Amino acid sequence: MTLHIAENIRRLRLEHSLTQGQLAERLGVSYQAVSRWENGTTYPDIELLPSIASLFGVTVDWLLGSTVADPRLALKQSWDKLGEIADPRERVSLLR
């Protein structure tokens, strides 16, 4: 399994308009550590993974690059599909 954590951290940080320094401060690490993670030189400590995932609203699996779909993408796809359904019973079924 190829880890995609470097790209994922960078992408999420930029999506949330955070600098490396701001992310580092929120996680209690140095901005150099964040830079090394994003460059793929090192990985975050395993104990930080849940905090990073929680901060960005993703799962640790997704953060690591699991082939499981981005939960935000799955939610958006379900929302789009819900708008296409005219029958209220089918909408309720999809929501369940």
Descriptive report:
By secondary structure, the chain is mainly alpha-helical. Helix content is 66%, strand content 0%. It is elongated and about 55 Å long. The protein starts with a helix and ends with a helix.
Features:
mainly alpha, 96 residues, elongated, 7 helices, single chain
What is the structure about, briefly put?
By secondary structure, this protein is an all-alpha fold. The chain has helices at 5-15, 20-27, 31-39, 49-56, 60-64, 71-84, 88-95.
Q: How would a crystallographer describe the biggest sheet?
A: none
Strand content: under 5%
Q: Number of helical runs?
A: 7
From the spread of the alpha carbons, the general shape counts as: elongated
DSSP helix fraction: 55-70%
- Helix and strand content put the structural class at mainly alpha
Number of DSSP strands? 0
The low-confidence parts are: none
SSE series: HHHHHHH
Global Rg: 17 Å
How far from one another are the termini?
Answer: 33 Å
**Overall residue-averaged pLDDT value:** 87
Walk me through the topology.
Layout: H1 5-15, H2 20-27, H3 31-39, H4 49-56, H5 60-64, H6 71-84, H7 88-95
